[in-house]
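Pasting as-is:
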Amino acid sequence: MRIAQPAAVGAAPTQSWDGLVVIASGTSWDDTWLSEKHLALHLAKHVPVLFVDPPASVLTPLRKPALRGSTRGPRLRVLDRNLARLTPLTVPGISRPGLRTIGEWFTRRAIARAVARLGGTVDGLVVASLDDVFGACDARVTVLYGTDDWVAGAELMGIPSGWLRRRERARLATADVVVTVSPGLADRWARTARTVLIIPNGCDTGHFSAVDEAAPSAAVTLPDPIAGFIGHLSDRIDIGLLESVAASGASLLLVGPRQLTFDLERMTALLAHPNVQWVGARSFDELPALMRRITVGLTPYTDSDFNQSSDPLKTLEYLAAGRPAVVTDLPSAHRIPAGLVEVCATPADFTAQTLRLLRQPADAEQAERRRSYALTQSWAARSLDFLAIFTDARSGRQIVPDAVDRGSPGPTRSAAGPEPS
């Protein structure tokens, strides 16, 4: 979905913003496309949406050059019909726990002012972080959107786990509804939250289904066939699996930003292999051309508590492109029907399955099975799951968790109710 050039609110076409859904994202609109942005784009096809960036300061573009546009122009911009974006400004240094409350205050005030300027009623306030944003506006229903287990990722983020745990308890007790992407996180949160729903991550199937019609990326210089990883090269990635694939002599393509502190010596050695190419961070629009060069997609996550509750978007994107995927043995992999991905428990198996799939002839029928499954996991379907929450709240119906089958690969909304006290 391409977005029109942003306009200040006063220059936007007149429309009603009644039934607004405010999404306070954990990631900027200009950063990597993650769950909140996909959800906003697809929800906006049904209801008005205000996407709220994490608060930015004048120093933010220095730390993240990709976010330069975030601090330019009006703070409240209309991107398209039914879709507006807000970038709260704050003082530098709010990533530190002691100063984060200042950023949260700026965010709540900015949301209140933006909602007043848009002039609509608010059906839902969705917060995709543990920041104290609830109460920023008068919403019919407040939703905590757990895209990850933030407490388990405390070390990865460099934040004290005890501080995060206290914030987690406070947000779980405040939210009307808690949505999480994984059953494991739902089980833990259901001990505190009132209502917990499981809505797994989705996939932009329209973006990836036509990969084979895209012109192959000229940036890739490796010989075919290619095993490819698309994502953030960070501490949640098992570099040993990438090293094993590289040592086999197979072409290995790495696409995405790199955490500067991520195992510097091993990453330097990995990238020194003549059969390994890293093309750096790429825009979402460039991914189909890069995926065109990939024969097998890789999801090499470590077996950490943080990853145990994750639901990687990249695996679904490989499937939407019709590519086979080799993934590590995490719970999220088991919701995908058997035969569509290769789930591997050891580095030797991960490499062996990758090499097997690289060598075997293309199977058009199997590629279509992968695409068909990905269609059932689309962000269009996920947005309807969220829309049901706001519709129930507007009509006054109680939001009742559905029964959940832990062994089911079912694609849509399910839930875990609170455990008996």
